[in-house]
Design brief:
By secondary structure, this protein is an alpha+beta fold. It has helices at residues 2-16, 68-74, 76-79, and strands at residues 20-30, 33-43, 52-59, 88-97, 100-119, 122-128. The protein starts with a helix and ends with a strand.
């Protein structure tokens, strides 16, 4: 029983200390107004082996009591531009009628693995494929 509890605690500490995460985003605008937004950052439970595609540096101060996931979610819009060139999909539809113009744009960043390393006042984000 004690051994199982110790193994569970060890597993939880390993998973919470992981540097590998999933990132995905979806935003929909209607007549240049954001009407829907879905943003996701979650830790990867299984180690991912892939090749490094690109890196990005973002100014984020790492607090000692804040988890990496909380810090990434808090600074979501700072790290969003790092993923623009990776796997994005944009669809745009414009309808012109007598009543006016209806313009709808859908912007999607497909789920992407990334590694984050915090150093000094910066976070280094490495995107994996």
């Amino acid at each position: 029983m004690e051994r199982n509890l110790l193994l569970l605690a060890l597993l939880c500490s390993i998973l919470s200390a992981s540097n590998t995460f999933w990132f995905s985003y979806k935003g929909v605008t209607h007549n240049k107004t954001l009407i829907y937004e879905e943003k996701n950052i979650s830790p990867v439970m299984i180690p991912f082996v892939g090749k490094k595609v690109s890196t990005c540096r973002v100014k984020i101060n790492k607090k000692s009591r804040t988890s990496k996931l909380q810090l990434l979610n808090k600074n979501f819009y700072k790290i969003l531009p790092c993923f623009y060139g990776v796997s994005t999909k944009i669809t745009s539809q414009t309808q012109i009628t007598l009543n006016g113009i209806k313009d709808e744009v859908e912007f999607i960043i497909v789920p992407t693995h990334f590694i984050v390393d915090f150093k000094d006042d910066f976070a280094k984000i490495t995107i994996l494929k």
